[in-house]
């Protein structure tokens, strides 16, 4: 079975940093991208960052470019999300999931949460002002 286990969330002050981990199992990473998403209370789930194993192509939402970095550890089948310069708008439950690999030239195409297949339980990130 496909399984994702997220960890690393917590409470930080504005300007702080956190690193989230997503341990993945039960599927061939080469065939998919792994995405990080977040959902704040009363808001829709939004994509934060995605990465493809082949080529290491990445996608970032405009709101996190320059502050967040997505990466993976092939040996551990784990995807990380390094989050710096956090602000209260980054508060939410962060999920990881696997989705379709689509490219436009050398860019990874973000296809939206509805196209992602299996999801973890999420980890809470709270940024205090």
Structure description:
The structure is a single chain. The protein is mainly beta. The chain is built from no helices and 13 strands. The chain has strands at 3-7, 10-13, 18-25, 33-39, 46-52, 58-60, 68-73, 78-83, 92-99, 103-104, 107-108, 118-119, 123-128. It is globular, with a radius of gyration of 14 Å. The N and C termini lie far apart (40 Å).
H and E order: EEEEEEEEEEEEE
Mean pLDDT rating: 94
| Beta strand count | 13
Cα end-to-end separation: 40 Å
Oligomer: single chain
Given as residue ranges, the uncertain stretches (5+ residues, pLDDT < 50) are: none
Number of distinct helices = 0
Query: Structural class of the secondary structure composition?
Result: mainly beta
| Inertia-based shape | globular
**Cα-based radius of gyration, to the nearest Å:** 14 Å
Biggest sheet, open or closed, and with what strands and sense? 7 strands, mixed
Strand fraction: over 45%
Helix content: under 10%
Keywords:
single chain; 129 residues; mainly beta; seven-stranded mixed β-sheet; four-stranded antiparallel β-sheet; 13 strands; 51% strand
Brief description of this entry?
By secondary structure, the chain is an all-beta fold.
List the helices and strands and how they pair.
Elements: E1 3-7, E2 10-13, E3 18-25, E4 33-39, E5 46-52, E6 58-60, E7 68-73, E8 78-83, E9 92-99, E10 103-104, E11 107-108, E12 118-119, E13 123-128
Parallel strand pairs: 2-13
Antiparallel strand pairs: 1-3, 3-8, 4-5, 4-9, 5-6, 7-8, 9-12, 9-13, 10-11
């Amino acid at each position: 079975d496909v399984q994702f286990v997220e960890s690393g969330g917590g409470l930080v002050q504005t300007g702080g940093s956190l690193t989230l981990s997503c341990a993945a199992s039960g599927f061939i990473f080469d065939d998919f991208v792994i995405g990080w998403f977040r959902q704040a209370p009363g808001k829709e789930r939004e994509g934060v960052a995605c990465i493809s194993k082949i080529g290491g192509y990445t996608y970032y939402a405009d709101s996190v470019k320059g502050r967040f970095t997505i990466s993976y550890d092939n040996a551990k089948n784990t995807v990380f999300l390094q989050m710096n310069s956090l602000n209260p708008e980054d508060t939410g439950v962060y999920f990881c999931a696997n989705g379709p690999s689509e490219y436009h030239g050398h860019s990874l195409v973000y296809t939206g949460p509805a196209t992602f297949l299996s999801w973890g339980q999420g980890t809470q990130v709270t940024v205090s002002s």
